[in-house]
Amino acid sequence: MIVTSIFVEDQDKALEFYSETLGFVKKHDVPSGEFRWITLVSPGEQDGTELVLEPNDHPAAKEYQKKLFEDGIPVTMFGVEDINAEYKRLKEKGVKFTMAPTDAGAVIIAVFDDTCGNLIQIAQMK
């Protein structure tokens, strides 16, 4: 199993956004102390890398998340096949972008607010 984590302010809100808005598929949702072990996967690669919705309960996690957001730095990047179609789809679902699709050399990138304390970048290879 390969996982990557994203700190989130509210696990329920994050689960809803990442599954219903972005289209990830919930793989695990298991109680773990006062929080839960929640992982999601790409619908096209359900045995691939799992995205952990990690509670930002630790003060260092809160500060890290807050500073990256304030400085406009995305916490991670997701690859997409057609960035313009994905940008349009997400905008229609009410997602707020801080950067529209922008040519960045070998890739086209866009950045949005995940409503859970993070900026997320999507990228399409040229």
TrEMBL record:
Organism domain of life: Bacteria
Pfam families named among the record's database cross-references: Glyoxalase
SUPFAM superfamilies found in the cross-reference section: Glyoxalase/Bleomycin resistance protein/Dihydroxybiphenyl dioxygenase (SSF54593)
Domain (VOC) ranges: 1-125
Gene3D superfamilies recorded: 2,3-Dihydroxybiphenyl 1,2-Dioxygenase, domain 1
CDD domains documented for this protein: VOC_like (cd07263)
Protein name: VOC family protein
